[in-house]
Amino acid sequence: MIGLSHYLILSGVLFSVGLVGVLRRKNLLMLFFATEIMLNAVNIAFAAISSHYHDMAGQMFAFFVIAVAASEVAVGLGLLVVLYKKYGTLDLDAYTVMRG
Amino acid sequence: MITIAFYFFAVLITLLFLVTVMSKNVLYAMTSLAAGMVLISGLFFILGADFLGAVQLIVYVGAVMALYSFAMMFFDMSKDVKEKNGSAATVFVLGGAIALMLVLVFSAPIIGQGASALYPGAVGATNPQAVGLVLFTKYLVPFEVAAVMLLVAMIAGIVLAGKKMDLSLSTTEEEPADEIQGGEK
Where along chain B do its domains lie? Predict the structure, then answer.
């Protein structure tokens, strides 16, 4: 039978995948994808805990996480477009302005 | 049956997100991310959070992924992404260690004291009804604040992706901006 721990382990694994992506990626768009993975992993944990305790608060938090993710994507992609127009690339190494 | 569905979804989601993290091609990464989000909504349906699953489908797969694919028209994504990476083993050990630490930190209060339901679901109500009952009574103020936040995000997106924004933000190098502007007209 599938219990709460199964979902929490899956959520932890997916969060680690997203974290590895954040640590590993140098392209800004790929970093956005990795943050989306981490947000989704947390949403799975919220939904599983909400279902386990028969409590609606977990699903509410998941809704607000989705709202925050949507606005983060809207603002972040606008910033990415501006950065790409200015530098012509999305590579993080190209944005270093301090020499040292 | 639920067991089979859970393991099916779990394995597929993990594999697809690994493709997202590891792939050098942005289009592959975005497609596998969208597919993983569809499967995550399947997990929500298994958990009985029907409304959350529908919202996940509409917002993530519908809106966020469409936004990514529209933004990709601004970027040159036909080439593979070249990234200068350090040691991969260091990244994996660091990622695993940080994730383990986060799990321990967040599970410590759960182990310490028994948790109980703060807002139990309404008896005899379907999931969307229960969601609405809690969302529009207990969480009304956060709901309104989230609405204002979405409005601010919409205005920010319009302003940032507007045509004149690169002219006012960039003062030194205008050549790539001019090419893009010329291509749009």
Answer: 1-76, 139-185
**Among candidates B40, B60, B75 on the partner chain, residue whose Cβ is nearest the Cβ of A90:** B75
The pair of structure tokens assigned to A40 is 């989704």
Domain ranges of chain A: 4-95
**A25, A29, A36 ranked by CB distance to B75: nearest:** A29
Task: Give the whole-angstrom CA distance, residue B9 versus residue B76.
Answer: 33
pLDDT in tens, B130-146: 888 888 988 999 999 99
Q: What share of chain A is helix, strand, coil (3-state, %, to 5)?
A: 80, 5, 15
pLDDT (tens digit per residue) in B81-133: 776 667 778 888 888 888 888 878 877 766 656 666 677 766 777 888 888 88
The band of B185, judged by pLDDT with boundaries at 50, 70 and 90, is: very low
pTM of the model: 0.82
List CB contacts (< 8 A) between A56 and chain B. Answer: 119-121, 130-131, 133-134
CB B38 within 8 A of CB B9: no
Architecture of domain B1-76: Up-down Bundle (1.20)
User: Inter-chain contact A60–B139, Cβ cutoff 8 Å?
Assistant: yes
Handedness of CA A12, A13, A18, A20 (dihedral sign): positive
- Domain over A4-95 is classified CATH 3.40.50.11210: no
Phi, psi of A48 (to 5 degrees): -65, -45
Evaluate whether B76 touches A84 at the Cβ level (below 8 Å): no
- Assembly ipTM: 0.91
Q: What is the pLDDT of residue A43?
A: 93
